[in-house]
Design a protein that fits this description.
The protein has three helices and two strands. It has helices spanning 2-5, 34-50, 66-69; strands at residues 25-30, 55-60. The longest helix has 17 residues, at 34-50. The chain is globular, with a radius of gyration of 14 Å.
């Protein structure tokens, strides 16, 4: 799969359950909603406790892009 070729270990939806994956960097692609931010904050705290030199990246994705609106 394309994800494995780019070094992506696992793709999963944001949920209350903390993802247990043996990686040093987690990337979240989310829409900016309060519920998602609370879950991600809890994940980030738990993740950095398990992996002290962990990196957490959050990428906010809009519902629609400017390009889509003008197409």
């Amino acid at each position: 799969p394309l994800t494995k070729e780019h070094g992506i270990a696992k793709v999963m939806p944001v949920s209350d359950e903390f993802p247990v994956v043996p990686v040093a960097h987690i990337v979240y692609f989310v829409r900016p909603h309060i519920q998602s931010m609370a879950i991600i904050a809890a994940h980030a705290l738990a993740f950095t406790e398990h992996v002290p030199k962990a990196a957490v990246t959050i990428v906010f994705v809009p519902k629609r892009t400017l390009l889509c609106e003008h197409a």
